[in-house]
Amino acid sequence: MSVRTTVEVIERFNRAFVRREADLLADLVAEDCVMESVQPAPTGERVVGRAACTAWWAALIEDRGGQFTPQEVIVAGDRATILWHYRFGDGPTDWVAGVNVMRVADGRIVEALGFSKTAGEVPLASGSDAA
Length: 131
Prior knowledge:
Elements: H1 6-18, E1 29-36, E2 46-48, H2 50-62, E3 67-76, E4 79-87, E5 95-105, E6 108-116
Parallel strand pairs: 1-6
Antiparallel strand pairs: 1-2, 3-4, 4-5, 5-6
């Protein structure tokens, strides 16, 4: 069996979320995978290992209250950046934009770091005159 490319792995990963098919994650996650979710801020939840990462993602896929939609995918070697929207309600502001920074080795996800836009004000550097 040939090793999947980074593009193939990330396409299958995204397809699992878009189609709500958690089974597509099977054999896609490395045994030593490390995932950091976007919440709780500021560092996110850290999840380690194939079983734990797969279970975490499967729960997100199966949650009918939300919908993950990839906006753009950029692949460079063993790295991939996924820009996404996650909708968690029907209202016009019931969504968040974010990005996952992924690393693939030997055809499996070994690292997935999630970041998102935050609600509320984030103070800018003091004394900044930038507009």
